[in-house]
Input
Amino acid sequence: MSQPVAKTTVQRALHAHAAIGLLASALLYLVCLTGTVVVFYQEWQRIEQPDAPEMSAIAPEAVQKAAAAVLASEKDRPGTTHLYVHMPVPGLPRTTITTDSQAVHVKADGTIAGPEENAWSEFLLGAHYALNIPGLVGMTIVGILGVLIVALSLSGVIAHPRIFRDAFRLRARDNRGAGLADWHNRLGVWSLPFALAIALTGAMIGLGSVGAYGLATAFYKGDVEAAYAPIFGGEAAPDPKAAPLADIAAPLVWIAAEHPEARPTYVIVHDPQTRGQHVQIIAEHPQRLIYGETYNFDADGRFKGAAGLADGHLGQQLAASTYNLHFGNYGGLPVKLAYIVFGLALTVVVATGTSIWLGKRERRGLREPRLRSLWDAVLWGVPLALALTFLVRLFAGNGAPLAALFWTLVALIPLAAAIRPRPRPKPYLKAALGAALIACLLAVLLR
Amino acid sequence: MSSASPLVWIGSAAGVAAILLLRRAWSLPRRSAAQNGAAWALLLVGVALGIAGNGAWGAAIVSLFAMGTAALILAHAAATARPGKAHASDRKAHILPEAGEPRRIGRRLATFAIVVPFAMTASLLVALGARALAALAGWADADSNALALLLMPLVWGVLAFLLLMLPGRRAQIAWLALPALAGLGLIWIGGAA
Output
């Protein structure tokens, strides 16, 4: 049978595949795992704070009343630059107001219920989005990981000429390395469309600021906002003179009347209680990948136009579709469950990649217990650290330093494995992870 | 999801049928161009129906159904697989030095520099060049800016792969320099700020 791809090309592709995979395997694994878990971002928030008031809808007047109450409670602080109202949606039926200095839940009648407590969900999102690194550095690193997944997907297909022909053959119980390779290749080929979509959208989100700086430098005299404005809309000029709070209720009434099919997800008041304030409503459109359309209103609640994310330029629709396509929140629970399955598949593909490489070296007589134990520590230590931070959140409260704890564990577990590689840490870490997961389940059920 | 267009559900059914047909075609002792072609055509028809029904959202739903079907078939294969004794591949990937081999740290660092920072710069220039070209062709700023934001990571991913496939440094440098220079030229012609 003739070889469809030249042998040297296959060998080079394997080299490229292994080089890229090894360069970033630990971070790729961490980002894929946290990305899978964060698909349930809304559900984690409900688990963290089960007693927050929930409602299927809230009256526009109640939103107005709540926003005024939140701002009144901040009279002794510098004025917030933005006020966000998270509107109740099926996945997270809660009304929550966030300003520069606080986040509070609101009851259906517009009274403040108490502070939002979702530190673990936020930590998890931060770990996936930016490895908990503040600023743009972390996001950019995660964006680069998306680029590497694109390159890994291409090199993986070329490095395995029979990958499609064997796409349904899975020697799951072969313990001499063939089984591991089959899991890697089969899950890899069938999650390929998902992996490419996730990687590309993730890279677009993560590297968006690099691209925007480039656009700004080349075409907008260094003005980054001007580069984004044609896509997402621009910011109005601020006027810091004091003014009564903008009318928030009227825009919500307008949306209900003019776009009954759209569901408001966020109300944003820019520069509230100043003469420059204006209101934006982000509303989801059914059966669309876009995160929503942005409707703009002045301080008196008069409609001033929409950004065009729903029906404007193709580029606007494309850019607005990256977030939902990446996070899987465009079809309720069934799509989320599918994203969990494919996200796990991608995580397993990343995890088995390095294991296969280590196995090949061992079969050639290169035994490297330290390297093997280090990889064990990453594979089982990262989920263990996630589970332990969740337990700490439940028992120590919302103020626990979760990111510091997680990254300390993620550093210490491999360090311990490197210092003492024998016996292999895998069975101990697996047992610890199992115990931690059971403890998490019990802690949630018995709260 | 309940108010999705019927075309999306028909497209999803076509996607499921396409995967089942691929399963059959790939299990044949000899390659069947007819069955392979029919399966891929059915998959394309499914995606097209999804797009016709609810645009990109419909295409995404059809894709999830197709991938979900493959996942179920794989789960069945995993559940029914018998323990085997097949020997796994031990192809060398030539990533880390083996006993007696030089470490070549400088060469590895140079490869990293070419594939990561240099390829990123080249990709950014290509994306900005494409943006300039799109603007010259009369595209709206929203479309041309979104094109640049999409192209930068996409070009970088493809370029990183191609660079690692090339046999020598000269070829790598040429593959970096040519698109970068083309991008720069287009940015200059496009009247950059």
Remarks:
- DSSP finds five helices and no strands in chain B.
- Chain B has a mean pLDDT of 91.
